[in-house]
């Protein structure tokens, strides 16, 4: 005789899923605000200074929350080399993204970044030993066609699109290293090390690119980059505590709507037809891959 799920348990699960969806949508609002703030700051200060501000404010925020002085175990890792490599990959991803934002529209950079899950799926075989099904390979190929439509290398797009694609590769490797670390270190330890590379690398070089902010609003923007990034990741964690990843994954694409809206309101940018077409191709391939993965999981 099959077990009967109590109605209250079903309602609680449904409510948790709705809360999780709301949380992850809010997380991507924060990430969109982070990119918009970085693009705005790039009009006043160098992109490396924006990157430095993002990591300094983020490290201060994480240290305040985790408090390594009262919780010394949070800094203890069993894979220091992998933690360092992951932190370097995140730094490289952020630096290249902020540089690309100086020249590209918000909608263009986020459309390119949407290929990250596809690249992770491609690299999962050699780096994690995960099999690549024919359906996954089809989705990967179509997704990269969409990225090429957005980037249009050599056909009128700014060369910064190639920098954005390099950042996408770094972020995909960052995601894979995060997966590997999940088997060895607790998430608090991995979060603690995330922003350290950016601070350690850029702080000694600060005098080479530092430009004194022209107004107090620039200082506020520099601080808000860490707040938007840190709070966005915090909401992301809360969302995954409420709902399965398969339920939350499609809502990553809501970020495109926020990026288009912020690009238009703040910078007056209107996506061209190539950006819209390429974004639709990437989103469609990502949703196809998601549906196939969910179907395989159920089977």
Automatic annotation (TrEMBL):
Keywords: Membrane, Transmembrane, Transmembrane helix. GO terms for cellular component: membrane. It holds the Pfam family EamA. Gene3D superfamilies: 1.10.3730.20. The keyword Methyltransferase does not apply. InterPro entries: EamA_dom, EmrE-like. Residues 19-151, 160-285 form the EamA domain. The chain crosses the membrane at residues 21-40, 106-124, 136-155, 161-178, 190-210, 216-238, 245-267, 273-291. This is DMT family transporter. It comes from Alsobacter sp. KACC 23698.
